[in-house]
Amino acid sequence: MPDAVHDAFQRPLASLRLSVTDRCNLRCRYCMPEDEYVWLPRASILTFEELDRVVRVFSTLGVRKVRLTGGEPLLRHDLPALVRMIARIPQIEDLALTTNGLLLAKQAAALRAAGLQRVTVSLDTLRPERMLAFAKSARHGDVLAGIRAARDAGFEHVKLNSVVIRGFNDDELGDLVEFGRAEGAELRFIEYMDVGGATHWSMDQVVSQRDMLEALTRRYGPIAPVAQTGGDARAPAERFRLPDGTTFGIIASVTAPFCRTCDRSRVTADGTWFLCLYAGRGVDLRAPLRGGASDDDLAALIRATWQGRTDRGAEARLGVADRGALYRIDSLRADPHREMHTRGG
Ligand code: SAM
Ligand code: SF4
Ligand code: SF4
Questions:
Q1: Mind listing the pLDDT tens digit for each residue in 109-126?
Q2: In the chain, N or C terminus with fewer CB closer than 10 Å?
Q3: Where are the domains of the chain?
């Protein structure tokens, strides 16, 4: 097997986020605040066979980790069938899923049986009325049931993602940590990012890693960083330990971006490959895929593109004066590929 391909900054092609649908059954304010969107045309959505082929080709170039995402990935019919296909690819060492949890209780056991290794559930608040206001859904109980079902299905290290937003849920950090501890799940607090989709974003709503650590220190006492080793050294989350041993992570994508070690890229449900969450445009893999290209042709395209990669989107955003939302809603409507729910977070 050839060595992993590296980009212009010596970052390997190692981790792939595979979006299986751009549709979602929530309307989180930081991601999809509108009621209606311009969706990817149905005929453009890759079949499971096509997605499997894409992952196989990436796996020959160094990809070892795959995370299924969306939109809401559990809306894709029979997702366990896709999991089964990808789990059979020998080079894929880590197969994970990020979900909002609404449909997880029904699917957790089948996903586990199909070979899914890890699950991350997004949970921003413990208060149903806040979820109703912020994500336009009254199904908070279904998310909690999904988290429990994941553990019951045998997923050992369930993670919980919380996007922290000033004035919305920044008073719940400790309560979320307590909830995670009780459920045997680790919290990962995420700084609110100015990605496409976050049309209501402003810097004053971002709760920085430092602010989060201060708030948790006030409640729990001194917090120690956890040394990251091996594969974790490239992980976006920095991990910390409370005095009682409970660990949690913070993804400081806004105030301390980690572009320098970024080994991840994204394939949208219609086969558009983005080298960075902030990239203005992606590479069309669907046309060659459906146009008769061989696996070697696809691999050559991917290799050459990755070798030229210089993206460091979040770091570049640090230098933007008067930073506001990345896109306005009209420019998102002009190209749904700019949306966070299309790119998969
Ligand atoms: N629907 C699934 C979910 O919510 O878990 C998967 C897709 S979602 C786009 C993936 C992750 O992106 C979620 O954990 C979500 O919280 C995060 N996300 C979305 N918009 C964000 C933003 N503006 N800033 C930071 N994280 C964001
Ligand atoms: Fe929320 Fe995920 Fe849906 Fe975005 S894709 S609206 S983060 S549930
Ligand atoms: Fe990687 Fe782009 Fe995110 Fe930086 S902004 S960590 S380069 S995806």
A1: 999 999 999 999 999 999
A2: N
A3: 15-343
